[in-house]
Amino acid sequence: MEDYNNNGKNSRLKQVFIIGLVFLAGFYFGAGSEPEISKVKGVAGKENPEEIKADFSVFWDVWNIVEEKYVPPDPEANGVTSAQDRVWGAISGMVDSLEDPNTIFLLPSESEIFEREISGNFDGIGMEVGVKEGMLVVIAPLKGTPAYKAGIKPGDKIFKIDEKETISMSADEAVRLIRGKKGTKVSLTLFREGRKEPIEVTIVRDTIDIPTIDTEWQGDIFVIKLYNFSASSADLFRISLREFIANKNRPKKMILDLRENPGGLLGASVDIASWFLPAGKVIVREDFGPSTKEIVYRSKGYNVFDKDFKLVILVDGGSASASEILAGALREHEIATLVGSQTFGKGSVQELIKTPQGTSLKITIARWLTPEGKSISLEGLVPDVSVELTEEDIEANRDPVMGKAIEILNK
User: How many helices (H) and strands (E) does the chain have?
Assistant: First the structure.
């Protein structure tokens, strides 16, 4: 009987234990079925808008695990990041998931620097950078700047800025690292096509005075070199055209050199294109996606050239944005022949939107299409006549691209 009673007692204990497990399992299951967001303390604005059809339970589950369990690997570390830092990190991750190097979330300090830089002059080395195929690359150095004098070339891939590797770095972050006070130094590690070994160059920062336009005569051919599309570009271009038209020989030939021109203001590009096109002709289409009607920018009809006028536009890998808009429009309207090498392919529109707590979002809101509807961003512009400028040409002070343009116009 004793064995029987013990067995019965053991059996009852097992039943109680199993029931306890079931109860606990039910408790944890019930707790698990409670929305994870409800367990998060001290976080405001955590409601999930009803119109967003996404499951945030994993996010809040991971949030709670980090909150409860994370221990910094460095014992000297000053605790873990704040809850607000983790929110901003999550927002940055969400924006990064768009896989658009031109769309970035700016923290308060970054937002303040960005606004200060675009509102006035700045110190730096004077080059435009972008992201292409996941790599940080030089779009173009600006003439006369420290980058230009140091021999930086369009297409150079930037592997390091000082000691910081640029893998997954946005162009905006790179610009913030490269810019700095006049007289200070920045070191760049570059990879250049045709070179097996990386190039390391140290450049002294200076105040950047961005050039706009140069003109010269090559025989009876008028050459306009446009370095950027700034607020003054359209007026300076108009002044240059007066020099061209005032020539007593009434020339009919022009070369517009857009090599290493990284672009700038859309309005300047439209205004300059209007000198070559009749009123109403399409210059560029701004495509906002299927839910919004596109905006079409048309010629203002300044055109002063007759049918005998001949134009060649020079382009290369440093021609981007507004340069591609102008070159693409004049080519598709059969006004110009493009000579040189393939352009960069920067055909998107960004808007800076201020968001709460001093942050901001620079977001792509549209893409630029040529008059015929071709996306500039997909592959840039392939010239009608391809001519490469080699290192040997540069060292020998030769310009075969300009030479080919002159040859075409003199035929």
Answer: 12, 19
Answer yes or no: are the C-beta atoms of 244 and 270 closer than 8 Å: no
Say what angle helices 322-332 and 266-273 make with each other, to 10 degrees.
30
The verdict on residue 98 lying in a domain is no
Choose one of 207, 242, 273: the last residue of a domain. 207
Q: How many domains does the chain have?
A: 2
Q: Nearest 5 degrees, angle CA 131-CA 137-CA 140?
A: 115
More confident of the two residues 324 and 85: 324
Mean pLDDT calculated for residue range 271-295: 95
- Which string of DSSP letters, residue by residue, matches 260-271? T---B-HHHHHH
d(CA 228, CA 331): 19
Question: Cβ distance 299 to 281 under 8 Å?
Answer: yes
DSSP state of 82: P
Residue showing tokens 């071709």: 374
Of the ranges 43-57, 117-131, 166-180, the best mean pLDDT one: 166-180
Residue 283, pLDDT > 90, answer: yes
Question: pTM score, two decimals?
Answer: 0.74
C-alpha span between 279 and 376 (Å, rounded)? 23
DSSP state letters, 138-171? EEEEPTTSHHHHTT--TT-EEEEETTEE-TT--H
Note whether 221 and 305 are same-domain residues.
Answer: yes
Q: How far apart are CA 48 and CA 32, in angstroms?
A: 18
Whether residue 158 sits in one domain with residue 260: no
313 occurs within a structural domain: yes
167's tokens: 């893998």
What's the pLDDT tens digit per position in 238-282? 999 998 988 877 778 999 999 999 998 899 999 999 999 999 999
Q: Which residues are catalytic?
A: 321, 332, 346
**Which is it for the CA torsion 331, 336, 337, 341, positive or negative?**
negative
